[in-house]
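BUG: 3D viewer hangs when loading the predicted structure for this chain

Environment: internal workstation, default settings.
Expected: structure renders.
Actual: progress bar stalls at 90%.

Input used:
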Amino acid sequence: MARSPLNLDEFLPYRLSLASNAVSQVIARAYEEHFGLKVNEWRVITVLAENDELTQQEIVGRTKMDKVTVSRAAQVLERRRLLRRVTNTDDGRSLRLSLTAEGQKLYARVVPAVLELEAEVLKGLGEQEIAELKDVLRRLEAAAERVLTRR
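Structure tokens produced before the viewer hung:
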């Protein structure tokens, strides 16, 4: 059998996926154990905390999660009284989402914990390396978006 020219361990999309999954698992465990949140629910909360009020479609655009995932997360959060969904006055077919006071309190409790975990994951990297990593990731994301829009 001929050997593939692809070396999976050196294939960038694979390495990014492994790193993303490993970091996400660390953070997801903390969300679930301490706050009863799934990753998708936390993403919705965070985006709303940073933007006050958004439509579900705007959340899809910000998080790159699909519509169904955002909708399900919003429903769970609404049942927990962490967010409210109201009809969008600009477009009656869509909803505007915002955090309730309870959702804002939860956000304020979760942030220090996730920042502490982020610092633990990044331990061993210098400030310059972290800044460069974030810059490279932003550029890779932008490059991937350019490729997607050309197709």
